[in-house]
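Tutorial, part two.
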Amino acid sequence: MGTLKIIDELLASLGPSAESGQGQQWAGQCARLLGLDGVAVTLEEELDWFSDRTSARLEDMQFVLGHGPGLPPEPQLCLVPDVRHQAEEHWPQFAAEAETLGVAALFVWPVRLGAVAAGTLTGYRRTPGPLTVRQAAAGWLVTDVLAGHVLAHWPTAAASAAADGPGTTGEVDMHRAEVHQATGVLSVRLGVPLAAALARLRAQAYAAGRSLTEAAHDILKDLPQ
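Running the prediction step on this input gives:
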């Protein structure tokens, strides 16, 4: 069976939810297809699918730190076969955290809807080394088919891509919805702009060694119902 056909079948019944067990199973199969230990898919800065805790943590850490190989404004192909020696110059804090998680190599493919960069497919390995030509090509195939899946499930993204504007994932279960809510709460409490409130939330999460969603939950749990 050809690689493209395998990818098509993997995505055929995939639902748009980060919490879906089916989505995690798909991500695990995708990782194996690409010769990786784990993968995560982020669309419009929202974590939609991930294969394991490490892949999810890598995506969250980029958001916490505000830098990393898969961050907007313009996601692009980024191959880091040796995190220790190649990532420190560009993303020193992220590289240190990735090493702590046992990540030795990192690979990012952009997910594009026409001219619009809608997100990323990020894969990692626990051993250093480059991708083979076949693995790198398979990554592009996954992102192409994934873009088609996004257009099929989220019509607002299709409309945005047609207009060549900033895409949107439409009505999905946002993995970081609590982050956005907590940012608004902090903005009001501290009397600062949203960007400054998000920076404060990121700092709290990083200092405590927690994910951004966990830090956000702590802020929201004491709000009156």
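Confidence is low (pLDDT under 50) at residues 155-174. In part three we will examine how such features are distributed along the chain.
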